[in-house]
Amino acid sequence: MNSPINAISAPILPAAGPADAPPDPVPRIRATLRDGVLAVGLAGEFDVLTCAPLRDLFAQGAAAGARRLVLDAALVTFCDSALLDVLDAWTRSGRSWETSATSRSLRLLLDLDARVRPRPADRERVGP
To answer: Quick check: 54 and 29 in contact, CB under 8 A?
Structure first.
């Protein structure tokens, strides 16, 4: 069964404009839930002000039975600890997550987080 989550569901496409235009900062989220896996694509900037819809989406996915999250963040242009907080909240309930694609911004954030907050073996995330 392939069912979209009732949250922000817009296509993740590069912003239209000249090739030398700056990346589009508007956060965009696309999600699908199938067989207990919540597949989420992100684009744009995610910070403390823009992560609320993502937090709501994860709550809806969990309520619908999702146990695993697959995150495509290749088009994320900026992210801060608010995105980490949303991902940590997902794992605190015994769920797992992994990335299918990451942007430079997310890789840097995850690398820094791994150095600052090493995970115990029972809370190890699957990711880059």
So the answer is: yes
Of 107, 34, 105, the C-alpha closest to 70 is: 34
Q: Assess contact for 45 and 79: CB atoms under 8 A.
A: yes
- 28 has pLDDT over 60: yes
Q: Tell me the C-alpha distance between 7 and 30, whole Å.
A: 8
Dig out the tokens for 17 from the structure. 């404009």
**Mean pLDDT for the stretch of residues 35-58:** 96
- One-letter amino acid at 116 equals V
The answer to pTM > 0.90 is no
Q: What are phi and psi of 16, to 5 degrees?
A: -75, 140
- Measured distance CA(108)–CA(105) in Å, rounded: 5
Does the pLDDT at position 5 exceed 60?
no
Q: Where are the alpha helices (DSSP H) in 17-123?
A: 52-63, 81-92, 104-116
Dihedral sign, Cα of residue 101, residue 106, residue 108, residue 110:
negative
Q: How far apart are CA 47 and CA 45, in angstroms?
A: 7
**What is the residue whose two structure tokens read 């919540």?**
38
